[in-house]
Amino acid sequence: xxxxxxxxxxxxxxxxxxxxxxxxxxxxxxxxxxxxxxxxxxxxxxxxxxxxxxxxxxxxxxxxxxxxxxxxxxxxxxxxxxxxxxxxxxxxxxxxxxxxxxxxxxxxxxxxxxxxxxxxxxxxxxxxxxxxxxxxxxxxxxxxxxxxxxxxxxxxxxxxxxxxxxxxxxxxxxxxxxxxxxxxxxxxxxxxxxxxxxxxxxxxxxxxxxxxxxxxxxxxxxxxxxxxxxxxxxxxxxxxxxxxxxxxxxxxxxxxxxxxxxxxxxxxxxxxxxxxxxxxxxxxxxxxxxxxxxxxxxxxxxxxxxxxxxxxxxxxxxxxxxxxxxxxxxxxxxxxxxxxxxxxxxxxxxxxxxxxxxxxxxxxxxxxxx
Amino acid sequence: xxxxxxxxxxxxxxxxxxxxxxxxxxxxxxxxxxxxxxxxxxxxxxxxxxxxxxxxxxxxxxxxxxxxxxxxxxxxxxxxxxxxxxxxxxxxxxxxxxxxxxxxxxxxxxxxxxxxxxxxxxxxxxxxxxxxxxxxxxxxxxxxxxxxxxxxxxxxxxxxxxxxxxxxxxxxxxxxxxxxxxxxxxxxxxxxxxxxxxxxxxxx
Lengths: 370, 204
Ligand SMILES: [Zn+2]
Prior knowledge:
The structure holds two protein chains of two kinds. Chain A has twelve helices and 14 strands. Chain A is of the alpha/beta class. In chain A, strand 1 and strand 2 form a beta hairpin. Chain A starts with a strand and ends in a 5-residue tail after the last helix. By secondary structure, chain B is of the alpha/beta class. In chain B, a hairpin with a 6-residue loop joins strand 1 (55-57) and strand 2 (64-66). The longest helix of chain B has 17 residues, at 38-54. Chain B is globular and about 65 Å long. In chain B, 22% of the residues are buried. The chains are: A alpha/beta, B alpha/beta. The interface between A and B is medium-sized, with 25 and 20 residues. The structure holds zinc ion (ZN). The site of zinc ion has 8 residues of chain B, from helix 4.
């Protein structure tokens, strides 16, 4: 998949901006605060229906304006065109149109335009809490497995209902059957989610180790998936999982009733990241952690490339300020050989076959002085 | 813009409260009422009041019926298969099944689904009334209960809940198939529906 053009209005600090990236690498450059990242964020909206890590729709609306719009045109690897338009006004729901057809369910759009991001903020995948690593995993799997997204959304809903029941019950006897039913539902979706995550991580880990080989320290890397519902090394059938998860909730029941919340499940799972057999969050230098994240992102790119019909679009935000020259150029070289890469920087980057886009010049020629 | 008449304004506001009616439509309806003969308007107001005064819930199936017609026509009809009860969320769904003309059994309207988030438990919907229809003291011999709730998480919770209560009674509990709409092309069906349809496949 390749972005052909994008036009944005009242989005973050852009009143109006039109942008046509190149085939391979496109370098958007401009001083800090000029709105480079916002362009990537707009592209992210078109691919995955929302902004970067945690920014809300309202955050993206230009101050004092009533509506932002994004209009984009993508070209598939086979050459067919997909038009995506996003419009948001706080007074209404967000609207997304694909080829002029309004999307009723946003989740159906995920996966159509595979997209890999790298932003400095994402180092929290390595250093932050389990939620960050779950988000990484879910974003990856959702893009090639639609059933997963549906299970995830339903799991979350069941979890909310179950927690509501646990937190509000008065007489246990009166809610016993409801709790049993909600536990069964939770287990049904949990089995699907855990199985998909196990499948993903086991092959992802192998790919990661291969990708990591170019790193100077020639280290051995690994990722393991830790489920809060079972600790089995061996692959279980879904039926066995179902029995095991149900048993786990039976054991936890007393505690859950006491603490009035669901204490285990995919919403409590985590990944463990290892470098040379040691947990990277605790034992690696910051440089090693960054390099590890780069390797994870490159692996994700390769993985999505292998598991979806389209080559992913890669969005790299401020890559060069965070990584040493060698690592960043290897990353850029590798990714751009398999799809479109759009990268931001403060200074213009030298290189072959790069399309440049200067925000400052754009503003001058389009008559919008800042 | 606002109208110079307080009464007109008030009616617009009332219309605008109705589902699917925006302010523009509410204005159009109000203008229409304003130009209609008094006798016609009176018919409308009495119809509105009648709905509140004369419509009750059938004491058997809980579907809506008129005052004095309890049990309802469906429950007393001799042409229906009294061994099957189809359980639905609201009267709208009864209407939908009746339109098909194919289902000949009885109904039971729950008036909601279990949702702890909204403070709705099994006792807040008509589950107990369903059990009463099936218990050993009842003359009608119900053999099958068909669950026809919406495919939401809450609909599923309610279906599983009811089936947990009914199965020990030796009742055959079934649910309507969830899957591909008739006339749809397989390639346009979303993955979740398609895999569910695959799981629920049947022999031919
Ligand atoms: Zn009735």
